[in-house]
Design goal:
Length: 320
């Protein structure tokens, strides 16, 4: 008969398992596991099998193992995990793409009824329509101030009603009504709260950023650096082109106002001296292809006709 392991043996085995995973994996998703059942958790483990491992445990045990492993290995980055181990959370160790793993975890959500005393994670709205309940059940609707009418021997809700708001606790009347209507308004699963990657900790929203988002944020940062540099006249790589342009404009204005000139100012002075060149430079181009033949026809009409040959042959007679 196999000897049942003691609590001390289980703690030693758990500590060894957690330390092994910390050494093998550099990416960890910290996920909340509130209202997640054992069967649901087993399905999540099966879905992530291959490149990810889900490890649950008591926060005190996990914190102790992480702290001792950090001291043993000298890798202080592990200590960044300790503040994240709050509440009912689990660790998902992975070698795959963090975004794909996070999306895979989100797939395993199970619908759940509204139980009494539970804090609603979302707003619950009862839709209008026939409930299928007999008129004796109207007391539930009256308590909750839900407008109804009797239609063909059943209770019918007239308008949509916001029964529970997000963050409110579910009351006994709301829970009973939703159970009678067969509505399971909530869904639960592992929810990724934080991401640990090689010692860095960040929000899971970062995983949703695309390359275009990063470029846009970088461009915004560069524009702010440029504006600050120009305001305090401090040269930076971002502000240098604008500083050169502004300096050129200042020197050009001096050259235009005086007789001093330089090659880059000669063209501007030439235009200022002869304003008609502005009109030539800004002459509009024909918008449609039909303008070209019309212009050609106009030129053809203006082309002078050849003069008839003179009979005097430039003053010499044929008989001279």
């Amino acid at each position: 008969m196999a000897v049942k392991p003691s609590k001390a043996d289980k703690k030693i085995a758990y500590d060894a398992r957690l330390c092994q995973l910390l050494d093998e994996y550099t990416q960890i998703l910290i996920a909340a596991a509130d209202n997640v059942g054992s069967n649901q958790l087993q399905n999540i483990r099966k879905g992530l099998r291959g490149d990810s491992i889900v490890l649950m445990g008591k926060n005190t045990m996990m914190k102790r193992s992480v702290r001792m492993h950090a001291e043993k290995t000298g890798n202080q980055a592990f200590l960044n995990l300790i503040p994240l181990l709050q509440g009912n959370v689990g660790l998902i160790f992975t070698k795959g793409d963090l975004k794909e793993v996070s999306e895979e975890v989100a797939k395993y959500k199970v619908g759940a009824p509204a139980r009494v005393g539970l804090v609603a994670p979302i707003d619950v709205v009862v839709p209008p329509g026939n409930t299928g309940l007999d008129p004796s059940q109207t007391s539930f609707f009256q308590v909750l101030n839900i407008p109804t009418k009797i239609n063909k021997g059943t209770v019918e809700i007239i308008t949509p009603v916001e029964l529970i708001r997000k963050g409110d606790k579910v009351g006994s009347s709301e829970a009973a009504l939703l159970a009678k209507l067969g509505i399971r308004p909530f869904s639960y699963g592992l929810i990724v709260l934080s991401v640990y990657d090689n010692g860095s900790v960040f929000s899971p929203e970062v995983l949703d950023l695309t390359e275009d988002d990063l470029i846009e944020k970088f461009a915004t940062g560069v524009s702010m650096v440029t504006a600050l540099s120009l305001a305090i006249s401090y040269p930076t790589l971002a502000a240098a082109p604008h500083m050169f342009i502004n300096a050129y404009k200042n020197v050009l204005s001096v050259a235009v106002a005086t007789e001093y000139s330089f090659p880059q100012a000669d063209k501007v002075k030439e235009y200022l001296a002869d304003p008609s060149k502005f009109a030539v430079a800004s002459a509009p181009v024909a918008a449609d292809a039909g303008a070209a033949p019309a212009a050609a026809a106009a030129v053809e009409e203006k082309k002078p006709e050849p003069e008839e040959e003179s009979d005097d042959d430039m003053g010499f007679s044929l008989f001279d």
